[in-house]
Write a structure and sequence with these properties.
mainly alpha, about 45% helix, two-stranded antiparallel sheet
């Protein structure tokens, strides 16, 4: 142990006054604030990770709906995507004559800062060509004595007409049966496409319009698909459910009735009309 000399004055511990403590605390806060001021510019200067965005194209959407959704997703003026079709160099079949209807495949597409209307259209068309060019599709088309493009057209009608996925095969059979017999398809969905609308109500006047999509007046398939079908509709188009049906009507949601008897079809249609009037829609 070392003893201190009595002559040595005792050491005093420095204790800041309340005012001194405030000065020290304030100084510390200023130092921290200055450090933060240095860090913020450094952090904000770092590249930001781009938030992923997507465009969902539902099954059955028409090209016009896809164009509109694309413009909104990309922040483009209305009509931009539609005009881009002419110069997008899409991989369409010759039969399409440059019209991508039916080949804007329903799916979820990623959107980035580099996505353009042309690149998005090509992505959709490439996807459709890859899916529709599959062996089971081409083989099914040949088996039904139609082209792949005609199969896409059939699938688009199936997509528009079938009330449920389980009805798709039967609707496809009605289409094939009527084509085989040389009967007009008489599908309301083709009239809706011609008139750029979507409704369950078809008048006698509607069935008289002058349009290549009027399947009441014209036999055979319409000149193009009437929408963009999905996988299930394409499967139904190449593999229709076996059956003799020539007519169908969805009397109520989930209640689609198929028949090959015209009198029975008339009774079903009358029930549909009564149902529509009962809900105030007819």
């Amino acid at each position: 142990m070392v003893n201190e000399s009595p002559a040595t004055p005792p050491r005093r511990r420095i204790r800041p006054t309340r005012r001194g403590r405030l000065v020290l605390i304030t100084g510390a806060v200023l130092v921290l604030a200055a450090a933060a001021a240095v860090l913020v510019p450094l952090l904000t200067g770092e590249p930001k990770t781009e938030q992923p965005r997507t465009l969902v194209v539902p099954e059955g959407w028409r090209a016009s709906q896809v164009y509109e959704a694309s413009d909104k997703a990309l922040g483009e003026p209305a009509g931009t995507t539609r005009m881009a079709v002419a110069t997008a160099d899409l991989p369409l079949p010759v039969e399409a004559k440059g019209n991508p209807e039916g080949y804007l495949f329903p799916a979820t597409y990623p959107i980035t800062s580099g996505t353009t209307p042309k690149s998005l259209l090509r992505y959709m068309a490439d996807t459709a060509v890859n899916r529709f060019g599959a062996d089971h599709i081409t083989t099914g088309a040949e088996r039904n004595n139609v082209t792949v493009y005609q199969t896409v057209t059939i699938a688009s009608i199936v997509q528009a007409e079938a009330d449920t996925e389980s009805d798709m095969g039967k609707v496809s059979r009605v289409i094939h049966n009527r084509l085989d017999r040389g009967m007009p398809l008489q599908m309301d969905s083709t009239l809706n496409y011609a008139m750029n609308r979507s409704t369950l109500d078809t008048t006698t006047g509607d069935t008289k319009i002058d349009s290549p999509y009027n399947s009441y007046e014209r036999k055979g398939l319409p000149p193009t698909p009437i929408g963009n079908p999905g996988e299930q509709a394409m499967v139904a188009a190449i593999s229709p459910t076996p059956g003799p049906w020539l007519y169908f009507v969805t009397v109520a949601p989930g209640d689609t009735r198929f028949t090959d008897d015209y009198a029975e079809q008339q009774r079903n249609v009358a029930e549909f009309n009564r149902s529509r009037r009962g809900t105030g829609n007819g």
